[in-house]
């Protein structure tokens, strides 16, 4: 009958076990720290897709952000990109909101949501499928656009419900809208708003 006699592992095997233990411990520590690395920047809100959709819908319908610049900054990246069919405004949430406030006489502008707001979690987008708008500019003669329509696409960060891109696509060409500008037309009151 044979008896089992334990052997002492060679020194190289012990060293390899210690190295693997150290690597495993470091990896576990890194994985535990990962959520902190993915935390939202200061001042940003952690919201569900449904909450974000409601916030941006309220920004559109109640705060009329396209003509007032009054949006909920906590759901936009500070370096979010903004564009429409006529201009690429570049990156910068504050730059966009200040620009809108300086450009429009917001209480005379008209804005109406005419289609559903659609959130797509898989595509990481929220879409205002249809809206109508009239812009009145802070220029001599307070020129206003004709009624124009379009869609707005909001693109979200791949990991967080934070808007990183805001793009308006107009149904009319910028040239068509510019040709329809009217000056000194204080009584303009288009229907449908």
Report on the structure:
With 193 residues, the chain is an alpha+beta fold. It has a domain at 49-179: Nuclear Transport Factor 2, Chain: A (Roll), CATH 3.10.450. 32% of the residues lie in helices and 24% in strands. The chain has helices at residues 11-37, 49-61, 65-68, 93-103, 174-179, and strands at 76-83, 88-91, 110-113, 117-120, 125-134, 148-156, 163-170. Strands 1, 2, 3, 4, 5, 6 and 7 form a seven-stranded mixed sheet that branches. A hairpin with a 6-residue loop joins strand 6 (148-156) and strand 7 (163-170). The protein is globular, with a radius of gyration of 27 Å.
| Head-to-tail CA distance between termini | 98 Å
Number of DSSP E strands: 7
Q: Order of SSEs, N→C? A: HHHEEHEEEEEH
Strand content: 15-25%
Return residue spans where pLDDT drops below 50 for at least 5 consecutive residues.
20-31, 33-37
Which class of one domain in CATH terms?
Alpha Beta
Major beta sheet, specifics?
7 strands, mixed
Mean pLDDT: 86
Give the proportion of residues in helices: 25-40%
What is Rg? 27 Å
**What is the overall shape?**
globular
Could you say what the CATH architecture of one domain is? Answer: Roll
Determine the CATH topology of one domain. Nuclear Transport Factor 2, Chain: A
Number of helices: 5
Question: What attributes does this structure have?
Answer:
32% helix; single chain; alpha+beta; 193 residues; seven-stranded mixed β-sheet; Nuclear Transport Factor 2, Chain: A; 5 helices
